[in-house]
Structure formats: structure tokens, C-alpha cells
Design goal:
- This protein is α/β, with parallel strands linked by helices.
- It is built from twelve helices and five strands.
- It has a five-stranded parallel sheet, sandwiched between helices.
- Helix 5 links the parallel strand 3 and strand 4.
Length: 240
């Protein structure tokens, strides 16, 4: 088993796997592509391959390090996500930059996965520039981006840019069935996921994800009064 099995079928993942295995590890990658292109899944897989002590630069997919990276619990892999609509400059100045200058806790690399990097406001992007220009040895940035036109060219130019495309419905069905899903569940998950293999996997195998989808599908039928609508809105907010 390899940690790359989780993104099997993502064309760009084949190239990234070979690149990392060869020890060609730039200080920053930018994974571009539309929603549903499995960018975050690929970024997490890359981080696991970088940190794996059992199969260095490959990722065994089974050791404690690989599992903790996939569960977002590895102390040297940091996920930066938007707080509301934005990733504010304070997040970059007060957490990312100081943490990027510290030594690793246990892994070979300190990895920062910045999801939807275009959500960094201009001040945050500019604050990150110096760190991207003069990174500490062993510090790796993996940025994901849906809308590259909203990301400063100066940020993009300091990254190795990789373009990803969504998986086909047929390919996702094949992957889910290989992992144990029945055909009907795999087909529904593939159609809803819009090419995102991680979302499809959650819909096919996670009971909580299926229950949420079922609840939201039937939500409209419950709304008969303004009070019903307010209750429904509160449920959605709590889930979010």
C-alpha cells in the first residue's frame, strides 16, 4: 500500500509522486484547479509522503506519521484555512511566519498547506512573500487555489505551479468500488462529488456525511412556516 493510493486516478499526482520520490522537493508548490479537482487530497498526500519515516519520500500509508497527516494531527503539518471569507494577515504574521522559522518537532519537513490561498487578502499575500523568497531549509509550502486570478503574480511566481482537473465519474466509481463500496452508493457519491475523490469517499463510506446529505435533501419538505425556516437555518449553521 502507498499513501498515493488515496489519490489514484489524479493525473498530476503521478508526476508529483515521481518528483518527490526523486528528492526534487521545491520550497513551494501551487496546486491550481477548479473545485472538485482533489487539490487538498493531493496536498495532504504530498505532506504524508514527505513525513513518512517508513518509506521516506514515498509514504507507506499505514504508519503513525502517514495516518496522523491524513487525520490532520501531525505536529509538523499545518493547515491554514479561511476564517470566514478570508485568511487574514494576522494569521500569516502571527502564526505562519514564526512557525516556519522553528525546527521540526519530529518529521523531516515542516509543511504548511494553505487551502484556497486566494482567500488571503493582499496584505496577507504580501506578508507571506518574504518567507516564500527566503524559506528556511526543510520548510515546504503547498498552496491550493481555485481562482488563480485572485492570487498575486508575485506569489505564483515563487511556487512550482501544478494544474489539476476533476476526476471523471467513471473513474471515481471504480476507485470507490475497489475500496469496498457497492455500485449504487459509489455511483451516487461520484455524481454528487463533482470530481472530488475525497468528497466522494466521504459520501460513500462516512455515515455522518450520508446523514447530513439526507437531512438537507428533505429539509425543504419540513418548511411550512417562517418558524420552520428559522429552525432549518439554525440547523445548517450548527452543522457548518
Amino acid at each position: 500500500m502507498s499513501v498515493w493510493d488515496h489519490v489514484a486516478g489524479v493525473q498530476a499526482a503521478v508526476m508529483l509522486r515521481s518528483q518527490i520520490a526523486a528528492g526534487d522537493v521545491p520550497h513551494a508548490w501551487l496546486l491550481q484547479g477548479p473545485a472538485g479537482a482533489s487539490k487538498t487530497a493531493v496536498a495532504v498526500t504530498m505532506a504524508a509522503a514527505l513525513e513518512c519515516p517508513v518509506e521516506p519520500l514515498e509514504g507507506c500509508g499505514e504508519c503513525s506519521s502517514c495516518l496522523r497527516v491524513r487525520r490532520r494531527r501531525h505536529p509538523d503539518v499545518h493547515h491554514i484555512v479561511a476564517e470566514g471569507p478570508l485568511i487574514p494577515v494576522d494569521t500569516i504574521r502571527e502564526f505562519v511566519i514564526p512557525e516556519a522559522n522553528r525546527s521540526t518537532f519530529e518529521g523531516s519537513y515542516k509543511v504548511f498547506i494553505i487551502e484556497e490561498a486566494e482567500r488571503m487578502n493582499p496584505a496577507a499575500q504580501n506578508a507571506l512573500l518574504k518567507t516564500l523568497e527566503e524559506p528556511q531549509p526543510g520548510t515546504i509550502f503547498i498552496l491550493t487555489c481555485d481562482r488563480d486570478e485572485e492570487l498575486l503574480e508575485t506569489v505564483q511566481s515563487r511556487c512550482q505551479v501544478i494544474r489539476l482537473t476533476p476526476l471523471s465519474e467513471e473513474r471515481i466509481v471504480q476507485l470507490l468500488e475497489k475500496e469496498g463500496a457497492d455500485h449504487a452508493s459509489a455511483l451516487v457519491a461520484a455524481r454528487i462529488s463533482e470530481g472530488d475523490v475525497n468528497r466522494a469517499r466521504a459520501l460513500a463510506f462516512e455515515e455522518a456525511a450520508r446523514e447530513r446529505r439526507s437531512a438537507w435533501i428533505h429539509l425543504a419538505r419540513r418548511i411550512e412556516t417562517p418558524a420552520d425556516a428559522l429552525d432549518a437555518a439554525q440547523e445548517i449553521l450548527e452543522e457548518a
